[in-house]
Amino acid sequence: MRNKASNWILAMLVLALCAMSSAAQTAQATPPPPTAPHSTVFPKPVEKNLPNGLRVIVIPRTEMPLVTAQLLIKSGGEVDPTDLSGAADMTASLLTRGTSTKSATQIAEAIEALGGTLNAGAGWDASTITTNVMSPRIGQALEIIADVARNPSFKDEEIERLRRQTLNGLRSAMATPGSIARFVAARVVFRDSPYGHSLSGTPESLPRLKRDDIVKIHSMYYRPDNAILVIGGDITAANGFELAQKYFGDWQNPTVALPKLQITTPESTASGRRILVIDQPAAGQTAVLAVRTAINRDSPDYFRGIVANAILSGYSGRLNWEIRVKRGLSYGAGSSLDTRRSAGSFMASAQTKNVSGAEVASLTLAEISKLATGELLDSELSTRKASLLGGFARSMETTGGVVGQFGSLAMYGVPLDEINRYIASVQAIKAADVKGFAASRLNADSTSVVIVGNAKDFLPDLQKRFSNVEVISVADLDLNSASLKKTVGKN
Amino acid sequence: MKRLTLLFISSVFITAAVCAAYGQTKMPQMKFRERTLPNGLRVLSVIDKSSPTVTINVWYHVGSKDDPDHRSGFAHLFEHIMFKSTKNMKAEMMDRLTEDVGGNNNATTQDDATIYYETIPANYLETLLWAEAERLASLTVDDENFKSERAVVEEEFRQSILAPPNGRFFYAMDVRSWNAHPYKRPGIGSIEDLDAATVEDVIKFHNTYYRPDNATLIVVGDFDQKQLDTWVDKYFVPIPKPNLPLPRVNVTEPARTGEKRFMEYAPNVPLKGVAFTYLVPSSKSDDAAALRMASTILSQGRSSRLYQSLVYQQQLTTTATAGADLREDAGMFTFTALTVNGKKPEDVEAALRAEIKKLQDAPVSAAELEKAKNQIVTGQLRQRETSLGKSNALGRAAVLLGDPNRVNTELDRLQSVTAADIQRVAQKYLTDNNRYVIYYLPESERPKTSGNNPSTDAAKGGASK
Question: What is the pLDDT of residue A10?
Answer without folding.
Answer: 36
